[in-house]
Amino acid sequence: MSARTLPLLFLNLGGEMLYILDQRLRAQSIPGEKARKDEWTDVDRKRVMNDIISTMFNKKFMEELFKPQDLYSKKALRTVYDRLAHASIMRLNQASMDKLYDLMTMAFKYQVLLCPRPRDILLVTFNHLDAIKDFISDSPGILNQVDETFRQLIETYNCLSDGEFQLIRQTLLIFFQDMHIRVSIFLKDKVQNSNGRFVLPISGPVPWGTEVPGLIRIFNHKGVEVKRAEFTTAGNYVTPQREGSFELYGDRVLKLGTNMYSVTRPVETHMSGSSKNPASQAKENIVPNPLAKEELNFLARLLGGLDIQKPAGGETGFRLNLFTSDEEEEHAAQTRPEELSYKVINIEATQEPGRRAELSRILGELEVAEPRPGSAEKGEDLLALMDEL
Amino acid sequence: QAAWCELPSRVLLVLTSQRGVQVRPGGDWGVPRGVGPSPWVTQTCSLPAHSVFARGIAAAGGRFICVGTSSGAVLVFDIPPKGTNVTLSEVLEQHRDPITDIAAEQGQAPDGAGDLVTADDSGTLCLWSTEEEFTLLGKIPGSGSTCSSVTLWNGIVAAGYGNGQIRLWEAGSGRIRAQVSAHARWIYALDLAPLTGKLLSGAEDSFVHVWKLSRNPDTDDIEIQHCHAECVTDTQVCGARFCDPTGDTFAVTGYDLSEILCY
């Protein structure tokens, strides 16, 4: 397994999350003057995006991320995104957060699977970063943070060999193995089958550096070509036009990793217990202490480094719904198949008293009140939070 | 990775992982053992400190098992005809990049051709003779593409690459004898049927191809012909193996696939 996979996993999943949040915020936003106090405006949306992106690209966070290490467990990673999604005034119910995470992971799984060359995973990452820079184009401070990370990506990854990229790709594919959640937008575009598996096209441009299959060349013992033969297959491939750019700026050519959501295309998932091997998923769920000690420490350090903004007095906390209505969200929460539930970690303190104190302190600072089920007003969450202080 | 290694004295199952290398005797799978002391006697060898994983397994020289590592070193284990005393006999250090695959001669090697080939991430191939000790006979430098899998038959090295090409090299001279634009994606698996010279290739493009290698002993012409193509719809093929030495049947595995498909 590759110890350099985590930054790519984190940044690409983060990128997908931002695409989805941006789409939902736009879909639910009301022009500024007409908005009531509990409705989204463009200003709110920009603020949420700025807050989340700025948290995501926090300097200390990135330093930790880029250190060679194994991937987190699925649960640990999910917790990081939970915190990230709540890094601003926005709140998500469990059902919406679950759906967000499903969409993020299936989208990136698709991108990794369809990457023509292993190294193209870097182009996918660059596509996400290009789009993120667009989201915060009028905030030079945050733009700087993102560019810094961009440069670090280039420095760390541009020199890796194909073999090393393939190992990274395999590490990612193992992480996503057996996930077959059906996504509406994928089903509609026919990139996913109704059984949850992605469509792998056997036509189109071959990867850069690969020849169109079909030619056999024979050489004699002096190295001179003496014969040519051809064979045909069902595939219908063509030569690619050009290679994508691996520089800070440039045409990536590859479309994977660009924003496939728009305001008019709702994001939906179909919940299906689609794992053919529920036993393997069940095994993960019954592990009593899901976090190994090292992961726990690292996670605590990361979370400690996250500058979580709490809604200050006078500001309102907004709730975002990833479904089209609150009733739908409630229904989704109740009908989610057991094997697909993300058991979000309750971080248990370790045995050592020193660590426990430190962790408790960090957790205390991060504590976010769960919105009461069924509450539809943005403001109510803030009141609930203040009640508990 | 896992591979059955057939030695004249016994058959062994070799497993590689991040933890190291495990060598287990091929047992009588059909007999239920029940609960009790494990009937398997396993030897676990950990990897040299600078290696991160082991990859590439082959039986060689009648009594050795070779395992590649991510540092480029090839570990040679001496297997006694009986018992569990597996010892590390040699470490071959000719590769500078992680080993991807190792293959032993499955047919009849012509003189001077060597009987073992090792491949790495950079596409470099090393040819070895395992007669008295392991001796490097030649090196074929890589040309930019990872050699992901390799087989050796009658002195012909068949190598599959990350850019979808299959190349045939003459083991004795190190010269290229054929180049095939075989697949549109990374080739994951190559297998050879030693009785007929059939070659099987499986890749991420969903295709499995059957080829026929031939070598004319008089003219020394080496040829490869395409026999058959099979598309495993919507599946990235990760493994492909002939089920018999004539190559009449083969099995395929793929990513996210919990089944083994037999053709």
Automatic annotation (TrEMBL), chain A:
Domain of life the protein comes from: Eukaryota
InterPro entries: OSCP1
Recorded coiled-coil stretches: none
One Gene Ontology cellular component: plasma membrane
Protein's recorded name: OSCP1 protein
UniProtKB/TrEMBL annotation, chain B:
Domain of life, source organism: Eukaryota
WD repeat-containing protein 54 beta-propeller domain segment(s): 1-261
WD repeat ranges, renumbered to this chain: 180-221
Alphabetical UniProt keywords: Repeat, WD repeat
Positions in coiled-coil regions: none
InterPro entries in the cross-refs: WD40/YVTN_repeat-like_dom_sf, WD40_repeat_dom_sf, WD40_rpt, WDR54_beta_prop
Designated name of the protein: WDR54 protein
The species this protein was found in: Cnemophilus loriae
Gene that produces this protein: Wdr54
